[in-house]
Design a protein that fits this description.
Layout (H helix, E strand, L loop, with lengths): L3 E6 L7 H10 L6 E6 L26 H13 L5
Parallel strand pairs: 1-2
């Protein structure tokens, strides 16, 4: 019954499109769930290019500023910033 924010990196090889579709179908009709994906981010929400691989996880990086802003906005306002 609690609001949810579901974020995905499109370069995440651990979470597949079919998984995301399953979650969307499972909560269909709920208006208190927000979804957002990020084109260049991996599983850790770190930017990169090309196909993500396990070795990418050993490189240092920072969580995308867009993700941080979206999470903060969702916590403060209960919705994703526009």
């Amino acid at each position: 019954p609690l609001p949810m924010l579901l974020l995905f990196g499109n370069r995440d090889y651990q979470i597949l499109d079919k998984d995301i579709e399953g979650w969307k179908n499972g909560i269909k009709g709920r208006t208190d769930v927000s979804f957002k994906s990020y084109k260049t981010l991996n599983h850790f929400f770190i930017s990169g290019s090309g196909k993500s691989t396990p070795t990418e996880y050993y490189k240092s990086g920072n969580v995308s500023e867009d993700v941080i802003k979206d999470v903060a906005g969702w916590i403060i306002d209960g919705k994703l910033p526009k």
